[in-house]
Every structure is written in structure tokens, then in C-alpha cells.
Specification:
The chain is mainly α and 788 residues long. It folds into 3 domains: 2-115 and 754-787, no CATH class; 124-167 and 480-741, no CATH class; 181-196 and 205-477, no CATH class. It has helices at 2-9, 14-58, 63-69, 81-93, 123-137, 143-168, 170-191, 206-223, 228-244, 253-328, 337-346, 352-387, 409-430, 432-454, 457-471, 474-477, 482-515, 520-532, 549-563, 574-588, 610-616, 623-643, 659-678, 707-717, 722-736, 762-768, and strands spanning 105-114, 691-692, 704-705, 747-757, 772-774, 777-787. A 4-stranded antiparallel β-sheet has the order 1-4-6-5. A two-stranded antiparallel ribbon has the order 2-3. A hairpin with a 2-residue loop joins β5 (772-774) and β6. α6 (143-168) runs parallel beside α11 (337-346). The longest helix is centred in the middle third of the chain and has 76 residues, at 253-328. The radius of gyration is 58 Å and the shape is rod-shaped. Residues 468-496 are annotated as: Disordered. The chain crosses the membrane at residues 15-34. Keywords: Coiled coil, Membrane, Transmembrane, Transmembrane helix.
Length: 788
């Protein structure tokens, strides 16, 4: 302890120790710092060398693809990439200049890996390259007009879709209108010239009518072979013959003459009985016939009234169904196209108060006439069995007439009349019960006749006439004027011509497309490339024939729900617009030469319609252009159906059953004209082969678009798909003859491993550095990516 104390206090040894401790710390810090700085220099050197190696490899791009399509892919030999990277890395690590190599960096290993997920098959990779190329090679030729068109579609896509929904149901709407109007016509048919027979029934003497009935029922009994009157005649005739057979001396000429008078009188009686019975039958039959005719007429008229009322009911039901259908359409306000269309269709709905003005009078008339018919039917029902009644009575035995020679004509007539009246009285007496029943029947008939006559069938007729007059009003018929009928016929004729022209065009396209053999090899190559990439292709490029103009319009309307979904603000779809411009300007789609009348051969060649292939992907020769034509036709139909609202050819038919028909007719006519212009080779003047984007709209009438502009809009409406991008790659590969272009990488990964010899404290460097230390050497690794 004493020595330690002596060293510190007397000899001042502490200063030396402190100095040594401080120097040692400084030495360690300096050593570590020096090695740390050397490592940092080595890392920067290695990073630079790795970056240079990666860049050098990717500088070997395929110039054919770049020259033609402004797209970069690696074009060098993959097997030599690693040796090239090693050489470039070594050159950048070891300098030929004469200076002290502080880092002493020694390259140990270089590895190269091309990214398999960074080929053009990667949608993002291809899209980024197309966007970059599009920035420098594409021009938005429509400028402000293009922005205006996109804005219109974006803002009005719901209205356009609603319009399409309504137009697509044109057949259903027109069928309901026709069904309703046919029912109203049926109603008018049933009530036209509808007159009612009134009951004309002669009031007869009950007692006399019944006597006639009895005599008519018994005339056979009275005057028949066994009848008393015939027996009297036969007896008189017998007595006459007996008297005449006597000898001249015994004959009583006066008696003979009296017999002859009696016979003549009796025959008169028999004739009178027959005549009386006949007249009684005729009177009874006439009375029944009169009632029956009125009843049958009433039944027929009642049937007509029921049919007329049923027709009105059906018309009202169809009208309600039409109203429900039209009200189901979701539309915008009155300033939108779909709102205006709905408003025009609402004008075709017959108001309920109009139907009430027809149905209420009919109900009243039916009630009145139904009562009248009931009375008449009751009269007939009562009278008929009475007329047909057969009264059977037993007359009994009567004494024969006692004619003698003292009688004269007056006494003979009295005897015959007395005998007849006796028989008549006996017959009536024996049927006294039946007489009572018959009297009651006739009284009931007479009472029913009086009730029937009190029914006001004239009033019923007036009510029916009022209902018919209402059915003929303009609020019900919506009848076209003569001028409208002429305009309708002309519009329909033009529609038929326009539709025929469109179908002829598509038919030509189909036939010419299949006759071009020069493109077969091209499409075979494209198909093979797509197969290698597992890319989807179109099943067929044939356009299906439509057998009516409206079916063609319906086909177009079906496109609307998805067609305008892709339209948004220009800012949101800027990238898509740039890529589309790249397609049109770099890959290429040429203006048609002359589809309608000229040589269409060139129009279908693949070299002139590459973008159409990218859109549709059919490997049938010429089919993609055919499908593009069909889509342009449908696109023009959509735009023209919007314009139809304001066309002077259509507006006169608002509020008529032909309104939707006029819209369709105008659309077909205008679309046919548009296609002629869009496919014209007429000069280089843009206006001669351009059409207004939307006819009849002031804001858009002066914005004129060509075939290529339609392709621009159609590309925008088509959603981006994996298959579409693959077709882009297929076109690039086929056009440049670069095999397996889709496998060419656009990114390389270079990894260099090197060593640095540590000068001082390896263990200390291992603590403060991320590198691996083995002995006195530190291993450094650097990885760099390079991509197009």
C-alpha cells in the first residue's frame, strides 16, 4: 500500500497511466474508423460496379421491337449475360489508373437473373411501357371536342341506359296500345247501329180469346169425322138421299129442298168453325211471334251490350297495364332525353275519367235494357205454354137436327144456330176451370206488357250513343292526320331501304372477309402465339343477321348497360386514353377505302386493321373489321336514338302510337347514311368522311367524327382485359418476327459478392458493420435491378 501511495503522490505516476489510456482509446477509434471508411468506399465501389453491370446488360434491347412499337424488351443472349456482368463489374472495381487502392476490393462472384414476372405478359409492365411510348408518340386529335364527348357520355350514361330500356320494349308497348285500341274498336263495332225493338202487343179480349182458343183446340172434335157438327151434316145428307130415293109418288120435294138448305147451312157452319179456329190460331200465334221476336232481338242486343262492355273492360285493363309499364321506367327530369321519352309515352295513356265517360253510361244502359229484356222474356215464357195448350173436353152426344117440310130457310137456320150454340155452350161449360186459368194467364201477360212498356229503352240508346261518341274522341283514338299518315309511310319506306342497305353492307363484309386468302398465314401465326400464351380468342367473327330493323336496334340497346361504364372524367381515364392513342397511331387502324361501292379488299387486310384485331381477337380472315363495322353500326344506333327526340321527322308523332316506331325508323335511316360516310374513301378532307357525333343536338352537331374517331371511342368503352394485352404482344411478335416475345424480360437482377481485407481490428468491424467477417476479410454483397 505504501508503494502505491508513493508512486502516485511522490513520483507523479498517474499522469503517465492516464496518458497511455487516452492514447490507447484514440488508437482503437482511429483503427476502426479507418477500416470503416475503407468498407464504405468498397460498398460504394461495389454498388457502382453492380449498377453499371445491370445497365450494360439491359442496354442490349431488341431494336426491331423498339423501332416499330417503341417498346423495350431484352434482346441479348441470356447465356452470356453473366460473363458480361462479371467483366463490367471487374472493370468498375479495379481501376487501371496508378493510385493507391485504399479499399482493396476483390470481386469474388457475380450472378445474373432475369425476372420472369417482368415480361410483357405482366399487365403492369406492358401498360407502363405503352403509357411511356404514348406520351411521346400519341396525339389527342379531338382535343376539347373529345373531352366534351366523354363528358356527355359520363354525365348522361344513366339517361342513355334508361332510353335504351324503354326503346327495347317498343314491341311490348305497341302491343299493349294495339290490344287496348283493338278492344275499343270492338266496343264501337258492337254498339254501332244498335237499335232496340219495342214491344207491340195487341191487348185482346180475354173472354173472346179464350173462346177462340177452345174452338180452335176443338175444331177437329166439332167438325171432324166423329164430331157432332160433321155428324149432323152426314145425317142431313143421309136423310136427303133417302128422301130422293123414294118413288115419285112418295117424294116430298119441299122436304128435299129443306134438306138441301139445311146441308148448305150446316156446311157454312162447319166452314165458319174452321175459319174461326184458323183465325184464333193465327191471332194467338201472331201474338206469341211478336213477343218472341222482341225477346230474341233483346237477347241479341243484350249480348252485344255485354260484349261491348267486356271490350271496354279489356281496353281499360290494357290501358292500366300500359300505364304501369311506362311508370315503371326510371327516368330523369323533363330536360333529359329519357324523361322526354317517358312524357311522350304518357300522352298515349287514356285518362281514367275518359274511360268513366264510356263505362258509366254503358252500365246504366245495360241495367235499363236488362230489365226490359227480363219483362219480355217473362211475357214469352208465360204466353208460350198458353198458346200451345191443347184443351181436351168431352162434348157428349147431341140430338140430330129435326128438319121437316114445314120448315123454311129461316127456321132451318135457327135450328142449326141453336144447335151450334148449344154445342159451343156445352164445350165452354165443360172447360170452365181451364177458362179461369187461361184468364189469369192472359191478365198476367197484359200486366207484364204494361211494365215492359214503362222501361225507357230510348234513354238506354242515348247513353250508349254517348259512350260511343266518347270512344271516337281524339283523347281515345290518337288518330293520325292525313299528313301524318303520309309522313309515316315515307319514313317506313326509308327505314326499309336503310335497313336493307345496312344488311347488304354486312353481308358484303362477311362474304369478302372469307374470300381473302392472303391474310391466312398472318392469322395462323397470331393464333399460334396466342395459344402459346394461353390467350383467349373470339369464337367467330361472323355478324348475326337480324330479320328486322327493330331487332337490330334491340341488339344495340343491349350494349348500353356496359358500353358507357368505362366513361369517366378525363383525369381518371387519362392513362387509358394514352394507351388507346398508342394503339391507333403506333399499331395502326386505317380509314376504310370505300365499303359501300368501291373495292373493299384493302379494308379487310390485317395490316390496315391491326387495332380491330386487338379489340376483337378473331382469327378468321377479315372478321375483326366486320365486327368493328357491326359495333360502329350499333354505336351509331345508340347515338341516333338519342338524337331522334329532336328530329323534325319524329316530333310530329309525339303522343301517337307511332312515336317509338318513328324513333326506330329515323335511327335506321340516319345510321345507314352515317355508315356510308364513315367508310368513304372520299379525299383527304376530314369533313367528307365524318359525321356529327350526335345529330339534332346543337352542342354536338358541329363535332364531327370519322371511322378512326369511332374506334377511339369504342376502345374507350371496351374494358382492359388480359386477352387484349396478349393480343398486343401477339401483334408485336408477329410483325417483328421476334420469337417468344412474351418471354423476353424487361428487368434484370445483378448480384455481386466481393471481399475487403481489414487492416486493424476485424472483431470490432464485425460488431459495427453488416458485413460478414471471416478472419481478416469482410464479405460484401450488392444487388441491383435494371428495367425498361
Amino acid at each position: 500500500m505504501k508503494r502505491i501511495k508513493n508512486f502516485f503522490k511522490k513520483q507523479q505516476g498517474s499522469v503517465s497511466i492516464y496518458f497511455l489510456v487516452v492514447n490507447l482509446g484514440f488508437f482503437i477509434f482511429s483503427s476502426v474508423l479507418i477500416d470503416y471508411m475503407r468498407v464504405m468506399v468498397a460498398e460504394r465501389n461495389l454498388e457502382h460496379a453492380t449498377k453499371a453491370a445491370a445497365a450494360s446488360i439491359m442496354s442490349d434491347y431488341d431494336d426491331k421491337v423498339l423501332d416499330k412499337f417503341n417498346v423495350f424488351v431484352y434482346g441479348g443472349d441470356v447465356s452470356k449475360a453473366e460473363s458480361l456482368a462479371t467483366e463490367i463489374s471487374q472493370d468498375n472495381i479495379v481501376s487501371d489508373e496508378n493510385f493507391y487502392n485504399v479499399a482493396e476490393l476483390n470481386l469474388k462472384k457475380t450472378s445474373v437473373e432475369f425476372s420472369k414476372d417482368k415480361t410483357l405478359l405482366n399487365d403492369k409492365t406492358l401498360e407502363n411501357q405503352l403509357l411511356e411510348a404514348g406520351k411521346y408518340t400519341s396525339l389527342l386529335t379531338l382535343g376539347d371536342d373529345f373531352v366534351k364527348i366523354i363528358g356527355f357520355f359520363k354525365d348522361n350514361k344513366e339517361s342513355i341506359e334508361n332510353t335504351g330500356d324503354i326503346v327495347s320494349q317498343k314491341d311490348k308497348i305497341e302491343a299493349l296500345i294495339k290490344k287496348r285500341d283493338d278492344s275499343i274498336e270492338d266496343f264501337k263495332k258492337q254498339v254501332t247501329n244498335l237499335t232496340f225493338k219495342s214491344l207491340e202487343f195487341e191487348k185482346l179480349s180475354t173472354e173472346k180469346l179464350w173462346k177462340d182458343k177452345v174452338l180452335a183446340s176443338h175444331r177437329d172434335n166439332l167438325v171432324g169425322k166423329e164430331g157432332p157438327e160433321q155428324q149432323k151434316l152426314d145425317d142431313l145428307d143421309k136423310q136427303l138421299k133417302e128422301e130422293e130415293a123414294k118413288s115419285e109418288e112418295e117424294k116430298d120435294e119441299k122436304l128435299i129442298n129443306n134438306y138441301k138448305i139445311a146441308i148448305k147451312k150446316q156446311k157454312t157452319v162447319i166452314e165458319l168453325i174452321n175459319l174461326t179456329g184458323k183465325k184464333a190460331d193465327e191471332r194467338l200465334t201472331a201474338a206469341l211471334s211478336s213477343v218472341t221476336k222482341v225477346k230474341e232481338d233483346a237477347e241479341k242486343k243484350m249480348e252485344k251490350l255485354k260484349l261491348a262492355n267486356e271490350a271496354l273492360g279489356k281496353a281499360n285493363e290494357s290501358n292500366e297495364e300500359l300505364k304501369e309499364l311506362i311508370n315503371s321506367y326510371q327516368t330523369g327530369g323533363a330536360d333529359t332525353s329519357d324523361g322526354q321519352l317517358k312524357e311522350s309515352l304518357n300522352a298515349m295513356i287514356i285518362k281514367q275519367e275518359v274511360f268513366d265517360k264510356m263505362q258509366k253510361p254503358m252500365a246504366s244502359a245495360i241495367k235499363e235494357f236488362n230489365t226490359y229484356q227480363g219483362y219480355v222474356s217473362g211475357i214469352e215464357l208465360t204466353l208460350k205454354p198458353y198458346v200451345e195448350l191443347k184443351v181436351r173436353i168431352g162434348i157428349g152426344t147431341f140430338y140430330l137436327l129435326a128438319i121437316n117440310s114445314e120448315d123454311n130457310e129461316a127456321t132451318i137456320e135457327k135450328k142449326i144456330n141453336d144447335s151450334y150454340q148449344t154445342i159451343e155452350a156445352k164445350a165452354l161449360a165443360e172447360t170452365i176451370l181451364v177458362i179461369g186459368i187461361g184468364t189469369q194467364i192472359l191478365k198476367a201477360v197484359e200486366a207484364a206488357v204494361e211494365l215492359a212498356k214503362k222501361v225507357d229503352i230510348v234513354k238506354a240508346k242515348k247513353e250508349i250513343d254517348a259512350a260511343k261518341k266518347q270512344s271516337e274522341s281524339q283523347s281515345v283514338t290518337h288518330e293520325l292526320t292525313d299528313k301524318q299518315k303520309e309522313e309515316k309511310k315515307k319514313l317506313q319506306d326509308d327505314e326499309n331501304t336503310g335497313y336493307t342497305d345496312l344488311m347488304t353492307t354486312l353481308s358484303k363484309a362477311n362474304s369478302i372477309a372469307t374470300s381473302i386468302g392472303s391474310d391466312s398465314k398472318t392469322y395462323s401465326q397470331l393464333s399460334a402465339i396466342m395459344t402459346e400464351m394461353n390467350g383467349a380468342t373470339s369464337d367467330s367473327g361472323k355478324t348475326e343477321a337480324n330479320n328486322s330493323a327493330f331487332k337490330l336496334v334491340k341488339q344495340a340497346m343491349k350494349m348500353i348497360p356496359t358500353y358507357f361504364n368505362e366513361f369517366s372524367s378525363v383525369e381518371k381515364i387519362r392513362n387509358k386514353i394514352l394507351i388507346n392513342e398508342y394503339y391507333l397511331n403506333t399499331i395502326g387502324s386505317n380509314q376504310p377505302e370505300d365499303l359501300i361501292s368501291g373495292d373493299m379488299y384493302k379494308d379487310f387486310l390485317f395490316d390496315n386493321k391491326k387495332v380491330e384485331y386487338i379489340m376483337y381477337g378473331s382469327h378468321e380472315v377479315g372478321a375483326n373489321y366486320t365486327m368493328a363495322l357491326m359495333e360502329i353500326i350499333c354505336f351509331r344506333i345508340i347515338l341516333n336514338i338519342i338524337a331522334a327526340f329532336k328530329s323534325p321527322l319524329v316530333t310530329p308523332f309525339k303522343g301517337t302510337p307511332f312515336f317509338l316506331g318513328a324513333m326506330v325508323a329515323y335511327t335506321i335511316v340516319q345510321t345507314s347514311k352515317d355508315i356510308v360516310k364513315l367508310t368513304s374513301k372520299d379525299s383527304k378532307v376530314r369533313e367528307s368522311r365524318a359525321v356529327p357525333i350526335i345529330n339534332e343536338f346543337d352542342n354536338f352537331r358541329n363535332i364531327r367524327v370519322t371511322y378512326k374517331d369511332h374506334m377511339r371511342l369504342m376502345l374507350l368503352s371496351h374494358p382492359r382485359t388480359d386477352s387484349q394485352y396478349k393480343r398486343v404482344i401477339a401483334v408485336m411478335g408477329q410483325q417483328t418476327s421476334v420469337e417468344k416475345l412474351y418471354e423476353k424480360s424487361t428487368q434484370v437482377k445483378v448480384t455481386n459478392t466481393a471481399e475487403v481485407k481489414l487492416w486493424f481490428l476485424p472483431k470490432a468491424m464485425e460488431v459495427i458493420s453488416s458485413g460478414k467477417v471471416r478472419g481478416r476479410k469482410m464479405e460484401l454483397t450488392n444487388t441491383k435491378y435494371s428495367s425498361y
